[in-house]
Design a protein that fits this description.
Elements: H1 14-20, E1 27-30, E2 34-38, E3 46-52, H2 59-65, H3 68-84, H4 87-90, E4 93-95, E5 111-115
Antiparallel strand pairs: 1-2, 2-3, 3-5, 4-5
This protein binds guanosine-5'-monophosphate.
Length: about 120
Amino acid sequence: MPIDATKPYDPDNVFAKILSGELPCHKEAETDHSFAFHDINPLAAHHILVIPKGQYVSWDDFTAKASDEEILDFVRLVGKVARDRGMEQQGYRMLANVGQRAGQEVPHLHVHLFAGEPLGPMLCK
Ligand code: 5GP
């Protein structure tokens, strides 16, 4: 069920539980402020999620409220994960759903990284 990204942060969301260790995940990488792990339901041969460790509902929330240090750390980790997985040679897609109409289901900012196969058109409606 898509979420309302304008609502306050829900500390019980699944990604908060992954960060706290309450839920398991297949970890890809970690920095001081950010964390990367494999999507539980991959939609491409490679499907990795990158999230900030701070409590941000969406890209909108993050870019408005996060510190420069958190934003720099996060953006750099997205690029590093893609490079470390050799995604730039293959071509890859990054995507962040924001809010109900975009289909955001988990109310903690995440950037999807897709690669490893032809990814098709940008939007499927
Ligand atoms: P959204 O639709 O919010 O942009 O994407 C949420 C993503 O989180 C989905 O691709 C979904 O498969 C993934 N996801 C949901 N719950 C879990 C979980 O418990 N573990 C992992 N690794 N991924 C999850």
